[in-house]
Amino acid sequence: MPNYSIAKNRIRASELDIVHTVESAQPLTFHADYDFANGSLEYATNFAVTRAKFKGGPANATVELESSDGAREFAQRFRLGDDMGEIYQHISTDASMDAAIKRYRGMRVTLNDPWETTLCFIMSQFNNVKRIRLIIRRFIDEFGTPINDGNGGPARKSFPTSARLTEFSEKDFRRCGAGFRAKYIASAAEFCTNNMDLYGLTGKSYDNVKASLMEISGVGDKVADCIALMGYGKMEAFPIDVWVKRTLERIYFKGEKKRPAELHDFADERWSNWRGYAQQYLFHYARNNSLYGAKDRKLV
DNA sequence: ACCCAGGCGGGCG
DNA sequence: CGCCCGCATGGG
Question: Closest nt to A297 (CA→C1')?
Answer without folding.
Answer: C12
